[in-house]
Amino acid sequence: MSSLPMLMRSWWILALRGAIAVLFGLFALATPGVTLLSLIAVFAVYALLAGAVAIAGALRNRRGAADWWLLLLMGLVSVGAGVLAARHPALTVLALLIVIGVNAIVTGVLDLALAVRLRKVIGGEWLLILSAATAIVFGLLILAYPGAGALVLVWLIGAYALLTGLLYLALAYRAYSFAAPRPAAQGGAAPEAAPKAERRVAERRMKPAAC
C-alpha cells in the first residue's frame, strides 16, 4: 500500500500539523516584540507536538503502508530538534537558529519524497511541494543569515510557520474529501442491490406456474 492511502486514512495528521503550525505562526506574527530566545522556546513546543503527531500517525499506519517510515523519520527529526532546543537553553541563539534551519530543510526534503508518491492518486501534490519548497527556502535563509536582526527573524519564522500550516490544512481537507465515502448515484441501484434483484427474477422464472 502506498504512502497516499496512509495519508488519506490519517488526514488528521496533516490537519493537526497544520493547526499547530498556524498557531505558532500567529503567535510569532502577533507578538513581534517577543525576544528571539522566547520564540525559540515556543518553537521547541511546536516541534515536539508536530513530531509527536507524525510519529503517532506513522506507527498507527505502519502495517501495509510501504512509506510509513518517511512520516516516522519526519517526526523523529522534529522531536529531536524540539528536545535539543528545550533541554539546552544555554545554547547560543545562533546554534538554536541553525537547529531550526536544519530541521526545516530536512522536513522539506521528506515532504518532497511524500509528494512524489502523492501525485498519482489525488493530484494534490503541489500543495505538499509548495510546503516543502517553503520549508527548504526558509531553512536556507536561516542558515545563510543567522545574524539578521531579531525582528526580521521573528517575522520570517512566523510567516514560514503560518504559510506551511495553511498548506497542510488545505492538503488535509483535500485528502479527507478524497477518502470520504461517496453516496450511490441517484436513481441507480446500490452495488449489491442489482445482483440480488437479478437473482430474484431468475428464481421466479424457474418456479412452475400454478395450475
Give an account of the 3D structure.
By secondary structure, this protein is mostly helical. It has one domain (3-180): Alpha Horseshoe (Serine Threonine Protein Phosphatase 5, Tetratricopeptide repeat). The protein has 8 helices and no strands. Helix 3 (36-60) runs parallel beside helix 5. The chain crosses the membrane at residues 12-30, 36-56, 68-86, 92-114, 126-146, 152-173. InterPro entries: Acid_resist_chaperone_HdeD, DUF308_memb. This is HdeD family acid-resistance protein. Residues 184-194 have a biased composition (Low complexity).
The biggest sheet, with number of strands, parallel, antiparallel or mixed sense and barrel status, is: none
Number of helical runs? Answer: 8
User: How many beta strands in the DSSP annotation?
Assistant: 0
CATH fold naming: Serine Threonine Protein Phosphatase 5, Tetratricopeptide repeat
Using the alpha-carbon principal axes, give the shape.
globular
CATH architecture label: Alpha Horseshoe
Radius of gyration from the CA trace? 24 Å
N-to-C CA distance: 59 Å
- Residue fraction in strands: under 5%
Mean pLDDT: 78
Structural class of the helices, strands and pairings?
mainly alpha
Helix content: over 70%
Identify low-pLDDT runs. Answer: 184-198
Taken together, the total number of domains comes to: 1
CATH level 1 class label: Mainly Alpha
Secondary-structure element series: HHHHHHHH
